[in-house]
Amino acid sequence: MSEKFNGSFTQQEPIPQAGIDAAMAVLRHGRLHRYNLAEGETGEVALLEQEFAAFTGAKYCLAVTSGGYAMATALRAAGVKPGDPVLSNAFTLAPVPGAIAGVGAVPAFVEVTEDLTLDLDDLKARIAASGARVLLLSHMRGHICDMDALMAICDAAGVTVVEDCAHTMGAEWRGTPSGRHGIAGCYSTQTYKHMNSGEGGFLVTDDADLAARAVILSGSYMLYGRHKAAPPPEAFETVRYQTPNMSGRMDNLRAAILRPQLRALPDQCARWNDRYRVIEDGLRDTPGLRTIPRPANESYVGSSFQFLLPGWDAPRLRDVLARCHARGVELKWFGAEEPVAFTSRYDSWRYAPEQHLPQTDRVLSGLIDMRIPLTFSPQDCAQIARIIRAEVSAVWQAAPG
Ligand SMILES: *Cc1c(COP(=O)(O)O)cnc(C)c1O
Fold first, then answer.
1. Which residues on neighbouring strands pair with residue 112, listed in sequence order?
2. Which of 178, 221, 273, 366 is deepest in the core (most CB within 10 A)?
3. Is 366 a pocket residue for ligand 1 (Cβ < 6 Å)?
4. What is the number of the ligand 1 atom nearest to the C-alpha of 140?
């Protein structure tokens, strides 16, 4: 009998007890709105913003309703106008082009490499061809491109970089936290990311003007003085008259849940990486399978795992997925023609102008993706790798190449 995995790929860990207790305290006093404060009280959201700013080393932090909201707000606060082209990864998740479309701008996609990062040569070409002045850079599935090279290209071309760090909260490039290379970094605290408040997000920046705009955009009314990680009142002097209120505030209940999770984040990242390395070791040198090399300058958080079955045709790929699924291992394939569940491709985002990215098509046609929830033990991860290895090998041996 072949072994079967019985875990759930969508089951996260419970909220830590300290978070449950803090949430109960908020429920008991009833002041859930971030600006509803007792005399002398700072409030959970303002404290969380202060703590997340310190965690990333940013001057300013704003907590909002989602990662998608953080990205759209960053673009708007950076001055993106309706009709502007905004560059972004062709390989990313739907909320990324959605944030660009949300400000009325037009996504211009850039090719992905076999290492699942933005293709920097193609970026140069597309900056020139599109005339875009903003790049919404997505560190999709936690793979960070050469940030030194990327920033050199963008700085030379006068392109502003906003980072989507939904999968790189806690990650670094050459010692600098992800989200701290461009003008702003955006994070998500949605259930499947590195901290879980159901929904939620952060925007961090050192730019006082951008931060002030973002605070007003998020729906601060004239209560921005109650923030602890926002710029001083002077930064709001003209901004407060010029910036619309587009409600997207975080509330004290979610912030209460998140604060203990932020304290635990470095340990959680280490636990993810233990699991990631077990899977990587288990799949290494499987014939027909390519693991993704991780550069020495990248400190990643292995909350999901990707590998390529390069050049495999669709029937054999589907066979691998079905065989793994039958043994309890849920894999996602980015090569499917139709978008399924969370997985969609640039060619299904048809509100964007039609674009052809042959290299991305080729990479995605062999790309397999898997979540690693922390409810999996390292032993679970070893078993998952054994199952994938066995099924990939079986299909490969039947028809190699
Ligand atoms: C989840 C995700 C987002 C957006 O997060 P939400 O909080 O769900 O809006 C952005 N980018 C990527 C790559 C994501 O996976």
1. 118
2. 178
3. no
4. 13
Residues forming CATH 3.40.640.10 domain(s) in the chain? 17-259
Q: Which distant-in-sequence residues (6+ apart) come within 8 Å of 138 by Cβ?
A: 88, 89, 91, 92, 93, 96, 164, 166
17-259 fold: Aspartate Aminotransferase; domain 2 (3.40.640)
Q: How far apart are CA 165 and CA 180, in angstroms?
A: 10
pLDDT digits (tens, 9 = 90+) for 108-142: 999 999 999 999 999 999 999 999 999 999 999 99
- Edge-first strand order for the sheet with 367-371 is 290-291, 304-308, 367-371, 332-333
Nearest to 334 by CA among 90, 167, 12, 119: 90
pLDDT 10s digits, 358-397: 999 999 999 999 999 999 999 999 999 999 999 999 999 9
Residues 6+ apart with CB under 8 A from 153: 120, 123, 124, 127, 159
Over residues 173-182, the pLDDT tens digits come to: 999 999 999 9
Residue extent(s) of CATH 3.90.1150.10 domains in the chain:
265-398
Is pLDDT at 221 greater than 90 in this prediction?
Answer: yes
Tell me the pTM.
Answer: 0.97
Share the mean pLDDT of the chain. Answer: 97
Query: Which of 3.90.1150.10, 3.90.25.10, 3.30.450.40, 1.20.1050.10 is the CATH number of 265-398?
Result: 3.90.1150.10
Nearest alpha carbon, ligand 1 atom 2: 166
Q: Which pLDDT band, with edges at 50, 70 and 90, does 72 fall under? A: very high
Tell which one of 188, 194, 199, 369 to mutate to probe ligand 1, the residue whose CB is within 8 A of the most ligand atoms. Answer: 188
Q: In the chain, how long is the greatest CA-to-CA distance?
A: 72
